[in-house]
Structures are given as structure tokens and as C-alpha cells.
What we know:
- It is a single chain.
- This protein is of the alpha+beta class.
- The protein contains four helices and seven strands.
- It has a seven-stranded antiparallel β-sheet with strand order 1-2-3-4-5-6-7.
- A hairpin with an 8-residue loop joins strand 2 and strand 3.
- The longest helix has 6 residues.
- It is globular and about 35 Å long.
- 33% of the residues are buried.
Amino acid sequence: VAMWGFGAQTAAAAGKPQTDPRWAEANAAVTCAELGIHGASGQFGDLWTNGIYDVEVEHPELPPVFVMRGGCYERFLYFDAEQYWRIGSGEYKDLSKAAAGSMRSTAPVEPGTLPAAVAGWRVR
């Protein structure tokens, strides 16, 4: 059984993502400037996950981050330290924290793989 923890006691530094030229090749600012997530259900489905996300690219060779537009909670779709795409809080995004959040890709993906190309997702 996978357990996902929340709060400061579970937020251990996971390290920052490494640069990789495959992120620059993916060119998220052009190819995936915004994305919509709809139909997520469950404990953290509707308010915590569903919505429109806008891309932010800090550096061309780092994974992009997608920021939920509006909504009740500050949510981010980010590439975690274990190479999963994951929706979580700013605290966990900043740590590239794995094992947290409301939704994640069902399997790790290679750097340069944008969320629209992910085959499956798991909602918590």
C-alpha cells in the first residue's frame, strides 16, 4: 500500500532536478503552454487536481512546472526526484518531492517527456 504524507515532518529535501538537454528539445513554453486536467475524482480530485495549468520554464534544460490557474488551493504539476509527473503543493514542488500530492503519472518517464505524453495517471 502506497502512503503519501503531507506536512513539514514529511518534507525532506530530495535534491533539485538536474539539467538535461531533452527538456530544451521538448520546448514546453511553445508545445505545452497550458494544459487542462478534468475528470479526476476521489479524496483530492476536484478541488485539488482538476483545472487549467499554465507552464513556467525557469531554465530551458530544467523540467517545466505547471501552475494551477485560480482554484481554492495553490497546486503545481512538477517533475519529481523519481521522474514522475506529480501534482502537489509549492513546498513539495520546491523539493521535487516524491510520494506526495493528489495525482501522479503511473510510471516514471524520461526527462523531456511532457505531461500530455504520459500514458496513465493515478489520482489519490
